[in-house]
Amino acid sequence: MKRKPMIAGNWKMHLTTSEARALAEGILKQTSDVNTGEIDILIAPPYTSLAAVSGTLASSPVLLAGQNMHWEESGAFTGEISPLMLKDVGCTHAIIGHSERRQYFNETNETVNKKLHAAFSHGLIPIMCVGESLEQREGRQTFSIIQEELEKGLDGLTSEQVQSMILAYEPIWAIGTGKTASPEQAEEVHKFIRGWLISRIGNESGRAVRILYGGSVKPDNIEGLMAKENIDGGLVGGASLKADSFSQIVKRSL
Ligand code: PGA
After folding, report:
1. pTM to 2 decimal places
2. Catalytically annotated residues
3. 76 CA distance to ligand 1 centroid (A)?
4. Would you say 29 and 57 are in contact if contact means Cβ atoms under 8 Å apart?
5. Closest protein CA for atom 1 of ligand 1
6. Which pLDDT tens digit goes with each residue over 132-153?
7. Domain contains 145
8. Is 1 a domain residue?
9. How many domains does the chain have?
10. Residues enclosing ligand 1, CB less than 6 A?
11. How many angstroms does the Cα of residue 171 sit away from the middle of ligand 1?
């Protein structure tokens, strides 16, 4: 089954508003010859730059995502951003459950689950991240950790919702470390996730879900990753902060 690839840039806590606008402009320029009927391009700037970048992207096919969100629509939650606010500023997607959120900000499978439900009730497409630490990999717990993240994270979602979301496998040991999982290591886990999806929502629907790989994706390793059957794109951190490298990753994914 042919799935449309996606390259998503996660800018994390980088760039001022003017820098963010300039990067978005650079990406638009350098990907202007890319047929977005064949590949989805998405960027996730920090909250403070969403409005500016949304303006820059207007009438372009490049998609906009929040890096996180709260599950409530509004309320006394100092420092949080709601799904309604992400929608309002022009986001179509939201990254949910990134390992940095889980590691540093007490994100759990339960809060991930609440956020996934909230994203769907506001018409946002979630990009849900799963992945194991080095310790868990070495302890041969990779599959059980991923399975638990999937089971608890996706609890109560309908088959239609699961089919329409995007998953990202991001081994924690490969994020920002320069140590990419080999295409074989990544594919092994992507295949496991695919199998889980098929058992959850059926063969055809499970095969339709896009699973991105994230963790030190660069222009020179994306082709090997994309050649694998169950790798449908990349969630890119460091290399998404330069228009050049991000655009090259997009072009080499086709
Ligand atoms: P990295 O980050 O590409 O800098 O490793 C990936 C991510 O955390 O999404």
Report:
1. 0.98
2. 98, 170
3. 31
4. no
5. 237
6. 999 999 999 999 999 999 999 9
7. yes
8. no
9. 1
10. 10, 170, 175-176, 214-217, 235-239
11. 10
Mean pLDDT, residues 37-59: 97
Position 179 scores a pLDDT of 82
CA nearest ligand 1 atom 6, residue: 237
Q: Which two tokens stand for residue 41?
A: 């391009």
The mean per-residue pLDDT over the stretch 34-56 comes to 98
Residue 16 belongs to domain spanning:
6-252
Are the C-beta atoms of residues 47 and 85 closer than 8 Å to each other? no
Question: Looking at the domain assignment, is residue 242 inside a domain?
Answer: yes
244 confidence band (pLDDT: 50, 70, 90): very high
CATH number of the domain residue 205 falls in: 3.20.20.70
pLDDT for 178-237, tens place per residue? 888 899 999 999 999 999 999 999 999 999 999 999 999 999 999 999 999 999 999 999
**Residue 143, phi-psi category: left (phi > 0), alpha (psi -120 to 50), beta (remainder):** alpha
Q: Average pLDDT over the chain, rounded to whole?
A: 97
Maximum CA extent, the chain: 48
Between the CA of 202 and the centroid of ligand 1 the distance, in Å, is 30
**Which residue, judged by its Cα, is nearest atom 2 of ligand 1?**
237
Residue 12 lies in a domain: yes
Q: What pLDDT does 177 receive?
A: 87
